[in-house]
Write a structure and sequence with these properties.
globular, 342 residues, 4-stranded mixed beta sheet, binds 5-S-methyl-1-O-phosphono-5-thio-D-ribulose
C-alpha cells in the first residue's frame, strides 16, 4: 500500500514525490513555503485536490516562518506568501479555493493565534478532501456496473487527492461493493500520469488495468471494449464545462461518437461557480521540454517549435454526469451545480 502521500508533521510537510514514481518512492520534507511552491510547479505534487491541500499547508508553513510579532507587519508578509501560491499553477481551482479559505481563516489579534488558526484550517482542508472523495466514490460507484471496463485519463487516484481518489475512487468503490471491474488507462502524454501513476495505483488496489497510448482510445471504443469513461477535473464552470488534463476533450468527443457515457468525478472544491462557462478557465502552458523530451531524453529535433497546453475544456454537452460528494449532477448543470455549492 502507498504510505500517506501528504503528511503534516508539526511544523513541516512531507510529500511523496510523484515525479519519481513508479520507479522510486521518495518522500521529501518541505519546511518552508518557497519549496512547497516549487514542488507544485515542478509537479512533485499534482492533481487538483492535492495541490489545494499542499498549498494550504504551504501557507501555514510560510506563516510559521514569519518572525515579526507585529500583526500588521505579519499580515503584509503573509499576503506575499499567499501571492507566491497564486502564481504557482493557474488551472486547478482547488488551489484558489484553498488560498481563499486560508485568507478567511486569519482571525485573532495575536500573531501566534493567527498562526494556530492557519495550521488548523490547512488540516481541515485536508480532512475535508479525504471525506469528500470517500463520499463521492461511494455515491458514484453505481455508474460502474458488474463486468464494466472503464477508460480513464491522467491520474485521479489517491495520489492526486490525498484521499480515496475521484475517478479511481469511483472505480475502487464499485469493486469494493462486489462488482467485477477493469480499467483501460491512457498513458497521458506528455508527463505520463496515466502510465506512471494510474497503473501503479490500480495494480496496488488489485484492479485489472491495461495501459494504452492516448491515440489508441478511439480504436478500443470502436471495438466495443469500453463501457464508460470516468475522469477527474481541475475546474468545472457553472454550466458544467470541465477543464481536465489535455486529451480529455478528445476522449469525450470519441465517447459521444461511440455512444459511451462520459462521466466526471470531482469534489465540490473543484467547482467554480464564478465562471459561467469553460471559456473563462485559464489554461496552463508548460515547459516545451515536457513535449520534446521524455524523461529527459530528446525525441524531436533540437529547436523544434512546441506547444504544451496542460489542460483542455470539455463542453458540458459531452458530459453524461458529474459525480460529487453532494450528489450526481446531470443536465441542466447550471441548476444542479449552483444548488450543491450554495
Ligand atoms: O497536471 P496534473 O497532473 O496536475 O493534472 C491532473 C489532472 O488533470 C487530473 O485529472 C485532475 O487534477 C483530477 S485529480 C483528482
Amino acid at each position: 500500500m502507498i504510505a500517506k502521500a501528504i503528511e503534516w508533521l508539526d511544523g513541516k510537510l512531507m510529500i511523496l514525490d510523484q515525479s519519481r514514481l513508479p520507479w522510486e518512492q521518495i518522500f521529501i520534507d518541505l519546511d518552508n513555503h518557497h519549496d512547497v511552491v516549487l514542488a507544485i510547479k515542478e509537479m512533485r505534487v499534482r492533481g487538483a485536490p492535492a495541490i489545494g491541500i499542499v498549498a494550504a499547508y504551504g501557507i501555514a508553513l510560510g506563516a510559521l516562518g514569519i518572525k515579526t510579532a507585529n500583526r500588521d507587519d505579519f499580515l503584509v508578509q503573509l499576503n506575499q506568501v499567499m501571492q507566491a501560491f497564486t502564481a504557482s499553477r493557474p488551472t486547478a481551482v482547488n488551489l484558489f479555493q484553498a488560498i481563499n479559505r486560508m485568507k478567511e481563516a486569519v482571525r485573532g489579534d495575536d500573531v501566534a493565534e493567527i498562526k494556530r488558526a492557519l495550521v488548523n484550517e490547512a488540516k481541515q482542508i485536508h480532512q475535508g478532501e479525504i471525506t469528500a472523495t470517500m463520499q463521492l466514490s461511494q455515491l458514484g460507484a453505481e455508474i460502474v456496473k458488474d463486468g464494466f471496463t472503464v477508460l480513464t485519463h491522467c491520474n485521479a487516484g489517491p495520489l492526486a487527492t490525498a484521499g480515496y481518489g475521484t475517478a479511481l475512487g469511483v472505480i475502487k468503490a464499485a469493486k469494493e461493493q462486489g462488482r467485477e471491474v477493469s480499467v483501460f488507462a491512457t498513458e497521458t502524454r506528455p508527463l505520463l500520469q496515466g502510465a506512471r501513476l494510474t497503473t501503479w495505483e490500480l495494480m496496488q488496489a488489485g484492479i485489472p488495468v491495461t495501459l494504452i497510448t492516448d491515440s489508441m482510445a478511439g480504436y478500443f471504443m470502436n471495438q466495443d471494449k469500453i463501457d464508460c469513461v470516468i475522469v477527474g477535473a481541475d475546474r468545472i464552470a457553472a454550466n458544467g464545462d470541465v477543464a481536465n488534463k489535455i486529451g480529455t476533450y478528445s476522449l469525450a468527443v470519441l465517447a459521444k461518437e461511440s455512444e459511451i457515457p462520459f462521466y466526471v468525478a470531482a469534489p465540490t472544491s473543484t467547482i467554480d461557480i464564478s465562471l459561467s462557462s469553460g471559456a473563462g478557465i485559464p489554461i496552463e502552458e508548460r515547459n516545451p521540454e515536457e513535449v520534446s523530451h521524455i524523461q529527459g531524453v530528446p525525441i524531436a529535433p533540437e529547436g523544434v517549435r512546441v506547444a504544451n497546453p496542460a489542460f483542455d475544456v470539455t463542453p458540458h454537452h459531452y458530459v453524461s454526469a458529474i459525480v460529487t460528494e453532494k450528489g450526481i449532477v446531470r443536465e441542466p448543470y447550471s441548476e444542479g451545480l449552483t444548488k450543491i455549492v450554495s
